[in-house]
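Data card: per-record layout.
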Amino acid sequence: MLAALDVEKGERYWFAVAGETFTATFIKLKSDGELAFKREDAPGRCNFARSDFMTLRGKGDAVRVREGQAQPRLPSIEPDAFQPIAEGDSKNVIARKKKYLKAVTQQYYVTCIDEFGIPHSIKKIQKFLDSHLEEHKKLGLSKMPGASTLLALCRECGQPGFRPIQLFLNGAGGDQKSTKWDQFILNSKALMIEMFYTFSKPLMSEAYALGWFLKEIAAEQERREAVNGPSLKVPAKSTVMRWLVIGGTEENKQKRLGRTVTNRQMGGIVPHLSASRPLELVVMDHTQIDLHVVVLDEYGEVRDQTSRPWLMLVVDVYTRMILAANLTWENPSLYTLMEGLKQAVRPKAFLAKLATSPSLAYACDGFGKFDRMLVDNDLANVGQSMRMTAFSVGLNVALAAVKNPETKSIGERTFETLNLELWHQAFGGVRERPGVLKDDDPSGEARFTLDEAQDLLWWWIVNVYHVKVHDGISMAPARLWKESYQFWRRPMIDDMRLIDEVFAKTEERKLTRGGIRYENEIYHDPEMTSGLIRDLYRFNEKNLTGAKKNQSVSISVRVAPLPDGDVSAIRLYNYARRDYVLLPNLDPEKRGTFAKEEVKRIENNRANEAFFPSRQVDVNRGKHLAKIAPHEHAKSATLPETSSPHGLPIHEAEQPMINRKSVQRGAAARKANAAKKKEKEAQRIKRQMALPESQDAASMYDHADAAANVSAIERPKEFSADEKAAMQAAMRLKLGLRPSVDTDRTLS
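The structure for this 748-residue chain is written out next.
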């Protein structure tokens, strides 16, 4: 039995097929399974096979047109618009991020009013807002809009069931409220809450926080009275204490007490995850796999190293189908999460070669628009940003409960199964706990590259995991997926192009008069480049005056490749017109992906070397220069047998130089020299402390050291008493002095 399609009679669709675009209305599902549409721009009908229509929906070439739309218009989302404000962002970037966050906040509350059936009354809406304060703080949204603002947005921004983000980006809504307290009191309140909920030793008490707050208010009162300024209305102590209690959000509690303690106080016991139909709830998780994979360099050659890549998984809770499985070298980040999310909602055409039977075809069919996705709480920072991004296109992403592993037990069990049946058994598999020292090193047995490991992973998923019986559901995931869609229809994204645009990973490049260079490709069109430079000229980074006036401009822009990695064009964001521009490749014949072009480039370089080595070209060029312009000072760079391999005797010295022993370098030499110096200093201090206080400097001469420096062969014999007396007598006689009594006595 064929699965039901997410299409209703009377719905309008915009098609981009065979080089033309048109709008058509769905009429019926024919008995042979084809879908019949009536074109609006021409008489007659057009029919699509089920598989072709699913492919068009997945690629974004068949877009459902909601009521009130003439044709689908792709809203332009600025790069990195939904990322949190980071340190180093300029004022303009911060303003743009706040603008998009405000639009998402307004879209969220208008959607709540539609889904909960809240009457369009200011009192009813305000009552809902008051009851939603705590949830608002947890969502990470901007300031809560007022009831009157939301009432106006409900009338102006689309209709129930169709509230696209672009309708909220025009700055509608005032979102201004009067305040009861002076701005100084509000600032002091925010600082007090920040101080109180910041970890310190010992922890700040409520009495200390209250005392600090009242002291600041009193000091400000005195300052204002001195200058005859307006007086402050001081809040009561009970009000200040209530502010501290209200400020005890889960995030602030974690900052003060830690995540574990906060979870024990506030985190409820989460039951086992459950769902009643496919795509109602999916789990996204990540881990570093227990397999060493061979690393390739930029030329596709094997490096002398291995590494363990990261795996992102998306698992459907109801059927246990794996909707996304992506291996990457990049640590978990916003972009790796979004890649897993994109793979979960799109058809997997790359698995067509594995669908060799009807059962395996269902094993390759896991995709669709989910109702809710659960993300690991360890990725709270990037998870919040992904929540805002996903919500803008109609996807609901939530964070898993803190310190409750049962909330993502399905993903953890899948990782365990992968380790036992796939990674641990493969060449380079880590069979013991990673990081534990052991005798054998599995990295030396690595045989697979990242692409090969990815192919092995999907083959095992399709041919083993999806078709074996699971204990939790008592059947194979592919069978449950097949039987479920006899009663449930698969939901899909209305416009898949919006997914590609919002989740695109952009990079910064320089735009010049010659276009843009990206991944060894040049993208340029004279008219389009001129138009872009005229729009973005104010962002020029060069001072084109004086000698530089004839140079090209250099403008920093954000670019993103096409979703399928096609090299024929690149997407460039025009900040002036707030839209993406498709800049073509300078070579119109270029087709294929960047990876294929890199392989072609490597093969071409090898063929060139095989035809005539570049080293021989350099040798021939040198011989040619020697013929046309010989230099008498130029000498051969050939090393003689006795020459050092670290230098070339290009210039010979006129006089011979004496080689002296150079200073030893390196950490070992520095350590040895420092030890010798320290020992010598210790001996000097020891000798100095052993000398009497009346001993002069001359007596500090170390005769033992002096004697050690004289060779035993050259050391003269010591003077005897007779020789000493004879020497003194000879000296007195030479100087004309009288012989001494001692000398006469000695000589006698």
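Known properties of this structure: The longest strand covers residues 20-29. Residues 91-116 form the longest helix (26 residues).

See the next section for split statistics.
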